[in-house]
Amino acid sequence: MTSLWGFAALIRVGGRTILFDTGSNGRVLLKNMAALGLAAESLDLLFLSHIHWDHIGGWDSILELNPRATVVVHEGFSKHLIRDLRGLCGELVVVGADPRPFGQGLFSTGMLDSNPPEQALVIDTGEATAAISGCAHPGMEQIVGRGAAILGKSVDWAIGGFHLMDADPVRIEQSVRALKALGVIGVVPTHCTGDAAKEAFRRAFGSACLNGGVGREIGG
Prior knowledge:
The protein is an alpha/beta fold.
């Protein structure tokens, strides 16, 4: 499989198949999905966290093959893209600032205030809870805190980009401590987390700090 800069994750929960973000390149996304035996046509929901190129680069490739999919964006996306998407998918959901459910155990955090604005996905499988971020521009602590407020219980896993690539050691340690204080028991720091932050999370979480990356499967 081919690894490019960007983030995409396929999630199965509550009988639904969700693609969270689409990486930077649609051709590579589809090629990697095929290598894993995943078809674009099998997707129920396409969830886009924010407007950056390395997260939305493959949406058109997905919808070309699966125009019936529901697409979830937020009000921080371009009004022109929102207008165009309405005619290219089965249903378009535009999330505001408030959290929004998408079925049993599946929620958007709502559009969080950051530059750019971002939404994250909160999951409750009944056996575990998780918050999944694209880049965590608002801070992974804020995303996990919002997730806990939505669920009424702690978030077990923080997964995705933690946006600590350019952070100094003090900021990294603050993030580690904050997630521990919020009750997080496992992390999958990837994409824009940065090597120094990944190492800090490995020290803090030990075997409950898992590597991400292309083709990585968690749970099952």
